[in-house]
Design brief:
402 residues; alpha/beta; Urease, subunit C, domain 1; TIM Barrel; 4-stranded parallel beta sheet; 15 strands
Length: 402
């Protein structure tokens, strides 16, 4: 990848040799956004009189070399694909120190960081600059401040979803919080611009939002056709909390959950029983799951967002890639917050996933997740590059491979 983790236009800065003609750009993985990504593939291009390049084919390298024997062979890239999508981040945590360690300690640190007044527009602005610099053009951000929501919906260089976060574990407060959220949504929706970011809802997690509030928020999402996103099954402590009401997460959140009553089911089953999965939320983390959980997710058609570096930093279980693949669940990639991940580069997230999963997940599958899976998680039309399109729409996710 590029030294700073930023994908770049594959042909930038190169002077066409020999005037008009054709080139073949090989890559370990090439993807135009249609179908599956291809390994050991290439993109054939036609040079134009203005110095630009036009895509004429994307196929296996051997076939393109046979079709265009006269074409000039260019340096190999690790990946040629549309820009990746960051399907989950927390831009307003961009001033939070990187805090690897136990998940429960991280939760305490996030709460303390927020109470200190360090979440807000200034932090989100810094995070937004980092996202733009990473080469991403589509992002899913969890928002906790109305000023941040207004800023994201006015951002001209990004598309995606600004998910308004709702927390409310006390069922007595559910009706009031639901009414406040409905009022906020009406205000936020008036700020949307065509082609810009959309408004979504983010009930924080199954244990920090009461059952009646979860049902109500899912209903609001269905009613307004709003994207929905939740943190789910992130730690072993979360599973223990839901099954028995005890464990390290209960101790960490005791003051927040004084009247918590466990359902006795997994967090995923709990959401399914409440009807929340029927609203097809994107489900973030999802590492503490079994086959029954994954079957429920597949049946509902939910996309799962994988954050490998954040999960690794917080000691979570390894994401069960093969299990999701076996059930045909779409997987996206996200960087989570800078409190649990070193940067916002989805290319580096992709490389971390490659290292984590090895032979269980091919680089081509992971490229699909970073591009099309991310678009599905945010309800976006996936980017596509076809014959006749500018070659510059495909980015090189790495320096040339020597």
């Amino acid at each position: 990848m590029a030294h700073d983790g930023v994908p770049t236009a594959a042909g930038d800065g190169r002077v066409p040799a020999g005037g008009l003609g054709r080139e073949v750009w090989p890559a370990n993985v090439a993807y135009g956004g249609i179908g599956a990504a291809q390994s050991d593939a290439a993109v054939a291009v036609q040079r134009r009189p203005d110095g630009g390049r036009t895509v004429i084919a994307l196929d296996a390298l051997a076939r393109l070399r046979e079709r265009f024997p006269e074409a000039e062979l260019q340096p190999r890239r690790r990946v040629l694909a549309p820009p990746p999508v960051n399907a989950h981040t927390h831009l307003d945590l961009s001033d939070m120190p990187f805090t690897p360690g136990r998940y429960e300690d991280f939760v305490r640190a996030v709460i303390a960081h927020g109470r200190a007044g360090r979440r807000g527009l200034a932090a989100a602005e810094r995070g937004l600059a980092l996202v733009r610099a990473s080469g991403v053009r589509a992002v899913g951000d969890v928002v906790t401040d109305e000023a941040v929501m207004a800023r994201l919906l006015a951002e001209p260089d990004l598309e995606g979803v600004a998910f308004w976060e709702v927390i409310g574990p006390d069922p007595v407060e559910a009706e009031r919080l639901l009414g406040e959220t409905r009022e906020r949504l009406q205000r936020f929706l008036a700020w949307q611009r065509p082609g810009g970011m959309r408004v979504g809802l983010a009930p924080h997690a199954p244990h920090t939002v009461s059952a009646p509030l979860l049902r109500g928020l899912a209903g609001l999402a269905r009613e307004g056709r709003l994207p929905l996103q939740l943190h789910v099954a992130e730690s072993a402590g979360e599973t223990e909390l839901h099954r028995s009401g005890s464990g390290p997460l209960r101790r960490a959140l005791g003051a927040w959950l004084p009247d918590w009553r466990p359902s006795g089911a997994s967090p995923v089953r709990y959401l399914a029983d409440l009807g929340v999965l029927a609203a097809q939320p994107s489900l973030v983390h999802m590492v503490e799951v079994d086959e029954d959980d994954v079957r429920l997710v597949a049946r509902a058609g939910c996309v799962v967002v994988h954050c490998p570096r954040s999960n690794g930093a917080l000691g979570s279980q390894v994401f069960p890639w093969a299990l999701y693949a076996r059930h045909g669940v779409s997987v996206a990639l996200g960087t989570d917050s800078l409190g649990s991940s070193p940067d916002v580069s989805v290319v580096r997230e992709w490389e971390a996933a490659r290292a984590l999963h090895g032979a269980a997940a091919s680089p081509a599958q992971l490229v699909w997740s970073a591009v099309k899976g991310g678009a599905r998680a945010l309800g976006l039309r996936p980017p596509t590059v076809r014959r006749g399109d500018p070659f510059g729409l495909l980015l090189g996710w790495s320096e040339p491979v020597h």
